[in-house]
Amino acid sequence: MGVKVKASKIYLPKFGWMRFFNSRLIPDGFTIKAATIRKRQDGWYVSIRIEDKSIPDYVSKPLAEVNSVLGCDLGITKLVHLSDRYQIDNPKFSTNKKAKRTLKIRQKRVSKKVKGSKNRKKSANKLGRFHKKILDKRTAYQWGVANKIVSRKVDAIALEDLNISGMLKRCKVKVDENTGRFLKNGQSRKKGLNRAISDASWSELILKIEYLAAKQGKVVIKINPKHSSQQCRNCGHIDKSNRDGEKFICTQCGYHEHADIGAAKTIRDRGSARVRGDSAKLGVNHQNAQKVSPRTCVQTW
Ligand SMILES: [Zn+2]
């Protein structure tokens, strides 16, 4: 080992002391475990894995001790809807109008310059710095959001299992059997949606929630989100047309409420069902919450 950080200098084995831009402090109580160096568009970056030994590995409560569950529905218009009606905004750091425009301009500037030229490198650096800025903003925001969620007075946080919902999967290619031509499959519309989804970075947010939850001895329950936004909370009727934008109106019994808050409540109920152990009835995924070690986390400079 032997990685050391001192103000604006970093010591790396084999390299020795180097000047670097110390963009963030190592939080109290953490020690450096390992370092990786990576070259990006605008320079060299070092990631350092830090460990807090005072935090035991995986300290979450057994499910039997969970009394209250918070449901958490991740979205795009709002980043998070909680089952207690609390909502958290999605600033769309890379897909808002202004950022999209800046990205487009900077990308254009790169492609207009001669390949291999100094000027091209300069504009590429500028573009890279803008990407980095977006990333930093999003990361900082997500820590705040994760903290807000985990700080609510509950023992457990129920989230949808993104591996099951597979939101980011590509649409299948559709081919016309007679002509052999490709048919519209909604891919281009989906492309925009995928971009918005990756801008929301749910999986990174979930990792932060898991990390903070484990630190506070709370449990994260991952549930199967199947039909969570289409199923009526009053009569159980499942229908795509139950949902009309932000509103949920059951086509069978007329029950209505805010669609995303309803989805968050359904996620909460499926989490509670897991706690009670009657998961079969609700089609809840049987897998245990993914184990995370909150002891270590990665910081990138
Ligand atoms: Zn109904």
Automatic annotation (TrEMBL):
GO terms for molecular function: DNA binding. Keywords: DNA recombination, DNA-binding, Transposition. InterPro entries: Cas12f1-like_TNB (IPR010095), Transposase (IPR001959). Residues 202-267 form the Cas12f1-like TNB domain. It comes from the Bacteria. Residues 61-169 form the Probable transposase IS891/IS1136/IS1341 domain. Pfam families: Cas12f1-like_TNB (PF07282), OrfB_IS605 (PF01385). One of its GO terms (biological process) is DNA recombination. In the C-terminal section; belongs to the transposase 35 family. This is Putative transposase.
